Amino acid sequence: MTRKDYDEMIELNKIYNEDCLEGMKRIPDGSVDLVLTDPPYGIKYKSNMRTKSPKFEVLANDNNSTRFMVYPEMYRALKDNSVAIVFASWKNYAEDYIELSKYFDIKNVIVWWKHGGGIGDLKHTLLTDYEIAIVCHKGKCKIRGKRCGSVWECNKVNPNKMLHPTQKPEKLLEELIEKYSDSGATVLDCFMGSGTTAIACINTNRNYIGFELDKHYCDIANERIQKALAEKAVGE
What we know:
This protein has 236 residues and is of the alpha/beta class.
């Protein structure tokens, strides 16, 4: 490997404000222990919070299938006997399952029971009080700790504290990280959003690599990271 190769390699514990398809080219083959990501769902996502609050930027890349181009790169970057955990919408979960199964062995789906749900059509639809995370194996990844069920209960982020319209709770991501990786592992999030995966990695003693195309959310993520690191330093 030349000096130029080393210079262009990706750094750990950093969020890159760039297209993940470009940035992931700098990740060596088989160097990531876990992929944990919540890609744009391709459904023109628009929450009630976004219509009511100016703090939420429009998710400009939500109405496309770019995420499908990322899946083979995720597979390449993952070590053998590791997993990629990919959140998906019930509206097009089947499409993601088909695309991911071209590369991975899908062993399971985790249903996150988050309580509550959007208002939606009060007369014709049930509350959507869950989200789906597809567990995709590259080889065979052993679960850590006690074997548990596939429905995980965890309250969603309080809407008044949300920094991103699809923000996941830290506790949920921490549990996923600890179930499918070891301390000191490297976790890749191709769509970092407001940085929750990075915070969960800091809290569980993992390294992270993140990409976020939107500078607004990249800045928010970096602010959260600095705060989390400061708090951890005080605790130590």
